[in-house]
Design brief:
The complex is a heterodimer of chains A (about 260) and B (about 350). With about 260 residues, chain A is mainly α. Chain A contains ten helices and no strands. Chain A has a single domain, classed as Ferritin. In chain B, helix 5 links the parallel strand 10 and strand 11. The chains are: A mainly alpha (about 260), B alpha/beta (about 350).
Amino acid sequence: MTDENDIFDYLSRGGKFSAPGNAPARYRAEMLRMTASFVDSELAGAAGFADCVNWGPGVKEKIAASRIVLEKLDHAERVLAIMGDFGANISRYESVHPWAARISRDEDIGVTRRAGDMRLNVFHYPLRDWVDSVVMNVMMGNATVIQLGDLQNCSYQPLGAAFRDILPRERRHAELGEEGLRNLAGRGGETLTKIDDSVNYWWPKVAATFGAPKSDRTEMLMRFGLRHRSNAELLEEWRDRMSVVLASAQGSRSESC
Amino acid sequence: MAQFTPLTVTDIKRDTRDSVILTLAPPPQSNGEFKFIQGQYLTFRRVFDGEEMRRSYSICAGVNDGALRVGIKKVDGGWFSSWANDELKIGDTLEAMKPMGNFHAPLLPDGARAYLGFAGGSGITPMISLLKTVLEAEKKSTFTLVYGNRSASAIMFREELEDLKNIYLGRLNIVHILESEAADIDLFSGRLDREKCDALFSCWIDAKNADLAFICGPEPMMLAVSDALKAQGMDERAIRFELFASAQPGRAKKKAASASAADKGAKCSATIILDGTARIIELSKDEETVLEAALAASIDAPFACKAGVCSTCRAKLVEGEVDMEANYALEDYEVERGYILTCQSHPRTDRVVVDYDQ
């Protein structure tokens, strides 16, 4: 019988699994925690974004928002199926949380997890209006793309493959948001103030989804081959990406002025 | 929940001195549940000395062979593999879960792909399924199998591989690497390690132009092969891994008996509240967790990881005391408020009340 330590050594040296049966309990637990966080975030994100469909100023925007809602639910379902392979009780899972529930906008829950709900904390806050939902989608959409970019090479190969399939669609969600943001910025005036407000509101909340710069858990996930890049590296990439995206939206304003 | 189905053993073929190949037939009412994808495995369960054992073995048949076969190599001290090799008879039944696993790539019937397979010892079993299926379905694809063993007598499926080589002449290439026997060419003796792979890739196998690689064997071999493939420029995503069955960790050992002799086998009456309904169940204090007992009583209690991490099974302990084996999920303030992870909790008192609704 192979010792569990041999398996952890195997993983830390780039080894991979393709079957749940190979995973030691500790690995299985961390993987489930990671996937639960993704699934809960997609379910909560979709539930929150569903309201925005009606806020969309035109049919095109409503379609974009609907597509995002639909695909996020589909992503949750795909990853949930993998959790099912690991023994999670899927039918129970789907009905257990009020995914649309939000706290008040001014409450600050930091990084404290809410009881039994693994969604990233950013998804506990409510969206205010169309501008706010577009800004949040741009910011969190880009964060998701960067985070999935790291997870797609994770040591549980079926999960990596699922994330690889999901990644281009999440990227498209962020792009749809960026397109919408450029259009909004083009309006100038009051809308620009609203955009700035939303950026300031969401910035620390989205940044917090990358986790603490020094995290024992992330280091362990890296030893398990479930993660490859540090929280700090991913956050930096997101900051760089945001400065490009927001500058590009600013550009739309100057073009239209 | 995991469903087990009894499969009837219809044939037992002794393959090598210490391995058997079983042919299994699902019951007629299983409705195609045992239809499998190449490279998948079956998980069996059997009770030995009162403890349930689960073991997984790869299916070693092509998807169109019309038979469900598994190869089981006897592992020193392995109860299940020894039993399967020494005692199992034709007509016996084995309880199995439906096929699982993801050690495959979607088939492309019009594809002309170059596959590489690397097997160590009994790691050959899923490879048989893969190469038979791929070579039949993808008429223009080729498969190169590198198969490492201690000695020639340990080679599983030796005859079958020879037959396949004749059927798929020019499309199936097999390289045997034998550890303890000197071959005519040094290249084919020794271990399947990094050095061996580099040597094979430099003169014998075109890894640079391979499309997909499948590796199944012990961990050091798998790492050596994948490192060597990556050094040849193969994309990590094109490399598929499967740890072979005997490498799987067994069931977690029960915590060393800390309970006093008096407590041993002591029962606890637990009231479980879920979805507004209370039910009373009885469980052994030192043997079962609250969650296990609830599930055994067909209570639909929520759970996911069963390892004290995800907190899906969280509940409030309204009355009594429990010991938690591990807690990676609950914050201190939650524990103070009486929350427990039911998957990790053993009752300490004769009566506990656990509420999943709070």
